[in-house]
Amino acid sequence: MMRTYEGRTAISAVAILISICLIGGCVTANAPNKPNKPVSGPVSQMTPLEKAHPLLAMELRKLPELQDGLTSGEGIALDRITALYFREKAGFDRAFQQMYKEGLPERRKYSAPLQALFWMAEEGPFPENLLGQFSVIYLLEHAWTFGPRLGRDPWKDYDTVMDRLSSPRLVHHYVSRQINYTDWWTVMGYDKDHGHPRQVFRYKNGDCLYISSFVVEALVRNGYKAMSEEKPALRAVDAWHMVAVFYENGKKYIIDDGRAYPRGIMDYQDYY
């Protein structure tokens, strides 16, 4: 944050107000999608998967792509996922556990990594040795191309994207690749009292206050306890710096992506 005309008391009040707003009701937390049982399209291929791996089948049915029934292309994607599961059960189980545990299953709308796998299945056969080298980040690097796919753009709508950014690692992956840090005086219509996540999304830039507010809104929406927090200035011309703080599995973390060289996720006590 690059303001020298604000005192620390006023700045601290801003951070507190942001936290209260984000945690106290300005952001509506998600609830999981209900597993849908499509009434049209080629649904028979789900039957063996539901018998062999009910949790995987249920998580697939929560995906936005399956909430309105199945197209033929989506049916082919399900065929590919089912074939991959039965061909490499042990490897698929390990990969699915990583996908399932990314985020808070009881709070997120759906599993974003599983959606990424579904996107890959829609676009063609899976890469060789996908499961052997599997990680969530590997999956995102291949599936999250941040542009139109199959005639539609899944990255255009704000609420759709915020629902997808359902864990700290997913938010950091998106911000570090899509949001550019800029000094506060270059932010269009800058509001010195509040960050504006929708503006960050629209213009793909922001200062530390704006970017931390974007991160916090995504996390709160997906069930995390999160807030913006003031830290000492990074440069002599700065009055202070803002980061996003969140809790996961009883531990406190920081995401410091609102800077020219994002630091990403770290234990709270390791920040300095």
Highlighted features:
alpha+beta, four-stranded antiparallel sheet, two-stranded parallel ribbon, 272 residues, single chain, C8orf32 fold
Can you lay out the helices and strands and say which pair or pack?
Blueprint: H1 8-24, H2 46-52, H3 54-62, H4 72-87, H5 89-101, H6 112-123, H7 136-143, H8 158-164, H9 168-178, E1 180-181, H10 197-203, E2 205-206, H11 208-221, E3 226-231, E4 241-248, E5 251-256, E6 264-267
Helix pairs in contact: 2-3, 4-5, 4-6, 6-7, 9-11, 10-11
Level of helix content? 40-55%
How many structurally independent domains? 2
Describe the strand arrangement of the main beta sheet, using strand numbers. 3-4-5-6
Question: What is the number of helical segments per DSSP (H or I, 4+ residues)?
Answer: 11
Which spans have pLDDT < 50 for at least 5 consecutive residues? 1-20, 39-43
Distance between the termini: 17 Å
Please give the CATH architecture of the largest domain: Roll
Write a brief caption for the model.
This protein has eleven helices and six strands. By secondary structure, it is of the alpha+beta class.
Characterise the protein shown here.
Helices cover 44% and strands 10% of the residues. With 272 residues, it is α+β, with helices and mostly antiparallel strands. It has 2 domains: 8-30 and 166-270, C8orf32 fold (Roll); 46-143, no CATH class. It has a 4-stranded antiparallel β-sheet with strand order 3-4-5-6. A two-stranded parallel sheet has the order 1-2. The radius of gyration is 20 Å and the shape is elongated. The model is unreliable at 1-20 and 39-43 (pLDDT under 50).
